[in-house]
Amino acid sequence: xxxxxxxxxxxxxxxxxxxxxxxxxxxxxxxxxxxxxxxxxxxxxxxxxxxxxxxxxxxxxxxxxxxxxxxxxxxxxxxxxxxxxxxxxxxxxxxxxxxxxxxxxxxxxxxxxxxxxxxxxxxxxxxxxxxxxxxxxxxxxxxxxxxxxxxxxxxxxxxx
Length: 160
Fold this sequence. Notes:
By secondary structure, this protein is of the alpha+beta class. It has helices at residues 36-56, 62-82, 124-131; strands at 19-22, 88-94, 97-104, 134-140, 143-151. The chain has a single domain (19-151), classed as Heat Shock Protein 90 (2-Layer Sandwich).
């Protein structure tokens, strides 16, 4: 699988570099109490995909930007709400998709709740799983990482 850092033969790739962003509220590592990191994460995703399109000529549909912002919003909201402490987001182009990884400091796996049409709220993970190509959660020594892959064009959605 080719990533933004180069192809399988080690040749440089003209795709945008992956970025890792600290979404903490301030420089001392405290999370922002008001949730501004969620809006910031959405804007960062749109900017990243805009650069992929404008600077690197990649095909990125308007729908893909919207879906990627939705996924980022849901993943960062969950981390912000349930995992106090450092919060990091990584954006990377892999093949014809954008991968977003959100890392937090809590070693508890997120669980999608059963479908309940009358339930208000707590549908975020269901929404993410419905619009991504792939979804993965990994426990790490200091917490967990949640990775979702979103197609850059309108061809394919749904978990693989």
